[in-house]
Design a protein that fits this description.
The chain contains ten helices and nine strands. With 289 residues, the chain is α+β, with helices and mostly antiparallel strands. The protein has two domains: 80 residues, no CATH class; 199 residues, 3-Layer(aba) Sandwich (Aminopeptidase), CATH 3.40.630.30. It starts with a strand and ends with a helix. The strands form two sheets. Strands 3-4-5-6-7-9-8 form a seven-stranded mixed beta sheet, sandwiched between helices. Strands 1-2 form a two-stranded antiparallel ribbon.
């Protein structure tokens, strides 16, 4: 593996690899859990509430091991994040067709995805009906499950870590590599957006996006201790992105096919890039805050 390289949104250098190997050699009895926590502490890799990012660090270690760069100890017990790779369990839900005008559904309500049942329902809806399915995200994320005023399910949205490198977005913001590394946590990626297939309501998608736009930064501040200044999303070319345009997202261009983590060679399909600042000085703050 060539270094430096980007893994799990972090720049990994030859000295970082040497540190990991040193920790392994000096502490052969450490579990993966202990190793990830100690390494994250060495790097002072924390979220904006000061909590060690050991789950992200553990994911990084697994990726390095998969590449053959390091050797990890065998798992001694299930990971605290062990549910990430388990199959999503089906959850019964009402799929009665909804074909009405938007005003008859208002006001829309957000279901509490911090409750295990609601999050299980959210996960299953994405796994069952979204073309990309669902995998529990690593790192900061914000799931939303929306229903109408009568409690009927309408839509799912998932926001997570922004792409490490995106030329059109970075040009739009006008930040340097250093600024991007320091402030990327202030940008989030809309990784999933699903209007449930039995819901056929004109203008619902753009209304949902507008509703989330007004509260996302405040929700992120409450959960993670920092705001969100801009949202981004990548739309498959077979879709037109109409709802994003209608919700005042700006079309910035197209991806190069190098994936969210900026791999050296194209490995995925070309997508349209959309962005939506959440503050009138968002771009200025992303460059100079």
């Amino acid at each position: 593996m060539k270094t430096p390289t980007i893994i799990q949104g972090r720049l990994i250098t030859a000295s970082d690899i040497a540190l990991i190997r040193q920790l392994r050699e000096q502490n052969p009895s450490w579990s993966r859990y202990r190793l990830s926590r100690e390494l994250a502490a060495c790097w002072n890799w924390r979220n904006h509430k000061g909590q060690i990012k050991d789950i992200a660090c553990r994911s990084l270690l697994r990726k390095l091991a998969h590449k053959g760069v390091i050797h990890l100890p065998l798992p001694k017990w299930p990971s605290p994040n062990r549910f990430r790779h388990q199959q999503v369990k089906p959850v019964e839900h009402d799929a009665t067709p909804i074909k009405e005008e938007l005003h008859t559904l208002l006001p829309l309500q957000l279901l509490d995805t911090s409750l295990p049942y609601v999050f299980g329902l959210f996960s299953w809806l994405l796994a069952r009906y979204h073309y990309l399915s669902f995998t529990q995200p690593v790192g900061e994320n914000m799931p939303y499950l929306l229903a109408d005023s009568h409690g009927r399910l309408l839509a799912c949205l998932l926001f997570g870590s922004a792409a490490w490198s995106c030329a059109a977005r970075d040009y739009y913001i006008g930040w340097s590599d250093t600024q991007r590394q320091q402030r990327l946590h202030l940008v989030t990626n809309n990784q999933r957006f699903l209007i449930l297939p039995w819901v056929q309501v004109p203008n619902l998608a753009s209304h949902v996006l507008g509703m989330i736009n007004k509260r996302l930064s405040q929700d992120w501040q409450a959960k993670y201790g920092h705001p969100i200044l801009m949202m981004e999303t990548f739309v498959e070319r077979r879709f037109e992105g109409t709802c994003y345009r209608a919700a005042n997202w700006q079309h910035l261009g197209q991806t190069t096919g190098r994936t969210r983590n900026g791999k050296a060679f194209p490995t995925s399909s070309i997508k349209d890039i959309y962005a939506c600042p959440l503050h009138h000085q968002a771009l200025l703050r992303l460059r100079h805050e």
